[in-house]
Amino acid sequence: MEMGLGSGSKSNAAARILAITLPIVGAILASVVIFLCLWTKKSKPVRKASVSYPTNPEDIESIESLFLDLSTLRAATDNFDERNKLGEGGFGIVYKGILPGDEEIAVKRLSQSSRQGIEELKNELVLVAKLQHKNLVRLVGVCLEEHEKLLVYEYMANKSLDTILFDPDRSCQLDWGTRFRIVNGIARGLQYLHEDSQLKIIHRDLKASNVLLDSEFIPKISDFGLARLFASDQSQDVTNRVVGTYGYISPEYAMRGAYSIKSDVFSFGVLILEIVTGRRNNVSYDSEQSIDLLSLVWEHWTMGTILEIMDLSMICHSPGDQMLKCMHIGLLCVQENPADRLLMSLVTVMLCSSTVSLQAPSRPAFCTVKSGANDSDTHTEQYRGNSQSTSRSPMSPNEVSITELEPR
Known about the structure:
Number of strands: 13
Distance between the termini: 100 Å
CATH topology of the largest domain: Transferase(Phosphotransferase), domain 1
CATH class of the largest domain: Mainly Alpha
Strand content: 5-15%
CATH superfamily of the largest domain: Transferase(Phosphotransferase) domain 1
Strand order of the largest sheet: 1-2-3-5-4
Radius of gyration: 30 Å
Mean pLDDT: 79
Order of helices and strands: HHHEEEHEEHHEEEEEEHEHHHHE
Number of helices: 11
Shape: flat
CATH architecture of the largest domain: Orthogonal Bundle
Number of domains: 2
């Protein structure tokens, strides 16, 4: 009997111990699980839409090696003398200078009120310092002293493309051979940015004034203040702050803030059409040009009169088939659907090959066709029968809703 009672007492004691300890252990385990879940969620990196800019020691060292003294740049530009001014824009003024050793430079002096802030400056520094290609402008140095923000580039003797291309007195310097080399050089520079460099870069502000020409008219893409870095597996990003230049901005970027390498391709397409025709894509309709360039080109393309809008300063001594091919490539690059636009690697192949067949372009984005204009398959003889019309409704460049368009 005593053994039975003792055994029962022990059983009751064990039950009481379990009744007390099990909830405690359960609570501790639950707390641990909750803590681990919260810690894992907090420590797990959030995948951003775009890659953060490099901040490793090599990047910092590469930038630090570019720093120049303000006194050096003052001496190089004669204290930023007005006679050395090369140009001026919303960001500030560019001056010509000569460094010790007779190296010619262009000094970009950002104004205090410049739209290019410290983030854009950092952007340009990191990207240009790491990019090396003959069709990209070379960064010589930088100076951040006494509230000055100065970017120093290699000097380009012929300044920017727009200063020659749209100047009636100077455009004759650009014969067709030179223009074709400029188109090809810009294409190769963009291909490097999009596909060939270790970084995948969207320029976002490609235009004639951001293409510089050296003494031999070799083009170099400049101004990476608005450029964005993409991950290797990233195809596009979206922003609620659209920054760019009227006439070059793609429809998906202007309307929805979506940008990708195909946004740059659209800008490149506009640039090709400008180079071949010698006309600026003026989207603020005026009395001299009542129709924008894309609509004008499309109208003549469908009517088979495309040669009529080629730049007269070169058309008499130029290979018409090569000019037509460039117009064709330009139209393929400015199609409304980004997926229909060409990759830059394919563009460079098309430019250099006479055997690659080109698909028929559809109506360009932002195209406004005059009443009576015909979308029939009539083209210059080499392209007759190759065009296809579309029933897409033209988009208006003024219908910007969810984005804030900031022209540069």
